[in-house]
Amino acid sequence: MGIVANQSFKNIILTYLGFLIGGINTLFLYTKFLSTQQYGMVNYMLSLATVLTPLMAFGVHNTLVKFYSVFKTRVSLNSFLTLMLFLPLIAVIPVVGATYVFNESISDFLAIKNEIIKNYIWHTCIIAVALGYFEVFFAWIKVQMKTVFGTFMKEVFHRAGAMVLLILLYFKLIDLDLFMNGLVAVYTLKMLVMKVYAFSVKWPVLTFKRLNNISAILKYSMLIIIAGSIATVLLDVDKVMMGSYINIEKIAYYSVAVYIAAVIAVPQRAMHQILMPLSAKYLNDKDYGSLKELYQKSSLNLVIVSGLIFLLIVLNINQLYLLMPNSNAYSSGLFVLIIISVVKLYDALLGSNNAILFNSDYYRVVLILGVILVLVMVVLNMVFIPMLGINGAAMATFIAVFLYNTVKISFVYKKFKMLPFSKATAKTLGLIVVFSVLFYFWEFPFHPILAMTCKSFIVTVLYVFVVYRFNFSKDITEVLKRYLRFVK
């Protein structure tokens, strides 16, 4: 796992830097400088743009990775890359056109519950297009096994830009409308910078030759739109649907809780960038031995790392809420945070499962199952949100993701006879449960920052010691030997 470990480590560092900046924005700047209604509106807009991203990319970001290693001649490869650049326009042009023609009708529909949404439909559309083409250019460098700069742009750039805009808003150098326009500019610039870098790595040679497998490519792209939509819908449709059922300021409480829980997924997000092209290569080469090893190692290592992050978040969350402005309101998302944290930990358990499924010949069946599960999630949200508010949305997400992940694990086992689990996985999960029970109700009578520091230090040292002492993972042990000088 040399290239995986090397780039994953750098990607994790950059992703956590992005989450650190985003955490400052989410927990302190947005909550301090915007009203809860305004913050809820920003989250709603960005969530809707994220839901539209797979359509705007037209599935190209996955198609490029899956088929890139198939083409062996320069002409066929250039023709394939040319197609990848222009294919998203099939979706972009109609969506932008529809937004222009039916802007008022779309605005009225989305703003039934919250009028503030009505003024920012175009912002959502432009950001969705920018996000779609950003993913295309990121995939362009993934297949070159160069993911570090793309991770910086994906995780750090827009969050740093939002921080600058929030500071300008605080000092009244810009108003809310200019802030929203600034967000559009940040996401557009992010896409353009990614384009320049991608083309510097591999300059596109526009070649319009017919590809022999064009039918398979187009069919895969169409179906990947559904797959990508499933993934983003499972993450963001709850926020979008809440805009029609509850007051928009509650979306801010929900979004803060979800953002904190999302930190658990950072290692998976970082490792996924390199797992996708490697899994595609092993599948195309029919190297199932390497594929199984990658599957199991990625799952175990992700559970170990994500498990520690899960503990640090859940065990310190009550103290963290005390530090936030309007803490009583935002702490109402405690149940949301815990239940979504469990969801993220289950996601980590899958390892390279998604990379295997999206790059195999069985993606069609999985997509059908995914569509069914998304429909189930939408129905669950319609039932639970009116009854339980933001807690209902969290429950709907938990049930839908649990079913979806379980089906994916079962399907990979049925077709490839591979499971991500091992005895070390069971030991790790047991360790997480024990630590959760032992430390959740143990609070230091100090200032919240000092209390969190003390508890985090104790939990981390004990957790790392157990993982190292009983050699849960050879990869983790080697990293500890290299970076923790005091461990002999």
Automatic annotation (TrEMBL):
Residue ranges the record marks as coiled coil: none
Gene Ontology molecular function, alphabetical: isomerase activity
Compartments it resides in: Cell membrane
Membrane topology note: Multi-pass membrane protein
GO cellular component, one term: plasma membrane
Transmembrane helix found in the keyword field: yes
Primary location class: membrane
Sequence intervals crossing the membrane: 12-30, 42-65, 77-100, 120-141, 156-173, 179-199, 211-231, 251-271, 300-323, 329-350, 362-384, 390-412, 424-442, 448-468
Superkingdom: Bacteria
Keywords, comma-separated and alphabetical: Cell membrane, Isomerase, Membrane, Transmembrane, Transmembrane helix
Full protein name: Sugar isomerase
Taxonomic lineage from the root: Bacteria, Pseudomonadati, Bacteroidota, Flavobacteriia, Flavobacteriales
